[in-house]
Design goal:
alpha/beta, 5 strands, 52% helix, binds adenosine-5'-diphosphate
């Protein structure tokens, strides 16, 4: 039986990576492959370079999308086909929400345009947990990071958050929204319940 694909999404500072590390150590989850986007292979490194420079937004989208294709081909699909559960810290919805923001004005509906170029080859997650938080709190949380990205600004993250909420509204069967302006232990308990009810 094909494994389940679960993705963790949300704006920078919403707590995805923190939760991903905690889930790795959680005994209730068993054999899970944890992964992330951008990846750490060479295309992922190119994405990181784009994130930390003023690369053209369309070029940046295609780098992210190439990384996504390689990630699916080399990591996600083989794991799912061998029956493993996969949890990815960021995945295709990050592209729709973030590049939907950066490409604002270049297409009539950038988020839909980006979804269209993923159609027929991306693997749609079985479950997406949207870590939802006010951008002001998220940016505050990120402020003590050693390296910041160009996305970690309140006005930009307001738009990204709105895009995520639109995606969740359009696909309520797949998305579960979790309020992450709470104690980590409470968020973790909810996330574990959500995941164990699927796998
Ligand atoms: P993301 O991966 O979504 O960008 P992180 O998991 O890196 O977010 O969290 C950003 C910062 O916020 C980190 O310093 C982390 O320790 C802190 N953090 C995460 N979750 C919470 C929480 N529920 N309450 C307070 N701080 C948190």
């Amino acid at each position: 039986m094909r494994g389940k694909l679960i993705t963790l999404e949300g704006i920078d500072g919403s707590g995805k990576s923190t939760m991903s590390s905690r889930l790795k150590a959680h005994p209730a989850l068993g054999d899970v492959l944890f992964t992330r986007e951008p990846t750490t292979d060479w295309i992922g490194e190119a994405v990181e370079r784009a994130i930390h420079s003023d690369t053209d937004h369309l070029a940046e989208l295609f780098l992210f999308t190439a990384d996504h294709a390689e990630h699916i081909a080399k990591v996600i699909r083989p794991a799912l086909e061998s029956g493993r559960t996969v949890i990815s810290d960021r995945y295709s919805d990050s592209r729709y929400a973030y590049q939907g923001m950066t490409l604002h004005g270049r297409f009539e509906d950038p988020m839909k345009w980006i979804q269209d170029i993923h159609r027929d080859w991306t693997i749609v997650p079985d479950l997406t947990i949207l870590f939802d938080i006010e951008p002001e709190i998220a940016v505050q949380r990120c402020s003590n990071r050693s390296e910041q990205t160009k996305f970690e600004k309140i006005e930009l993250l307001e738009d990204v958050r709105a895009n995520y909420l639109r995606l969740a509204g359009e696909d309520p069967e797949r998305f579960v929204i979790v309020n992450t302006d709470r104690a980590i232990k409470r968020i973790e308990a909810d996330v574990i319940d959500i995941i164990t009810s699927l796998v």
